[in-house]
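Sat 14:20. Reprocessing the chain from the morning session after the first attempt stalled halfway. Input below, unchanged.
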Amino acid sequence: MQLDKELQADVIRELEWEPKVDSANIGVAVDRGAVTLTGHVNTYTELIAAERASLRVYGVLAVANELVVKLAGDRTRDDSDIALAISNQMTWTAAIPHEAVKAKVMHGWVTLEGQVDWTYQSEAANKLVRGLIGVKGVTNHVIVKPTPHYKDVKSKISEALHRQAQIDARRIWLTTDDGHVTLHGQVSSWSEASAARQAAESAPGVTKVDSQLTITP
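Finished this time. Tokens:
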């Protein structure tokens, strides 16, 4: 196990390396492989990027993201401006079905609601909103409604896991229940866990993916 001091230095360097993150106002603490990020960033996208950069570092087992979005004075937006921006963006985003997703904005925090056919459509709405200036956080309540799916969805996902070089499928197994997939086993990094989750979400008929994968560097 890496010493916490060494791991802290690695996380700080990774944050400095990540072009989407201004690390000047981010503090990093490490306790037995668990990283805590404190301070503030300019956008919600930057907040997510800082968390993901930390998770990429070898030896990091978990990240507590206590960063807050603190917008510069000339970039502030009221809720009506944010709502209008969301509406305009969704209209021109092909990945999100027309009028399938609705957004409510309160004090810069966006709540997404609605129903879509695929998990990637829910993720597309989430990604679109968190990239807008003025958004301080996102709660995604979009439901992936059941669709006809292949009876062999479990084998389809297993095949996908084995095809991807960054995933050691030998240490992963899964259970399925009417479109709900649960991943079990061990992976060597957060990136591998994320890749496994994305592979499962891409299978036809999958409505929800729960990851119970354990990261064991």
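Helices lie at 4-17, 44-56, 79-91, 119-130, 153-163, 190-201.
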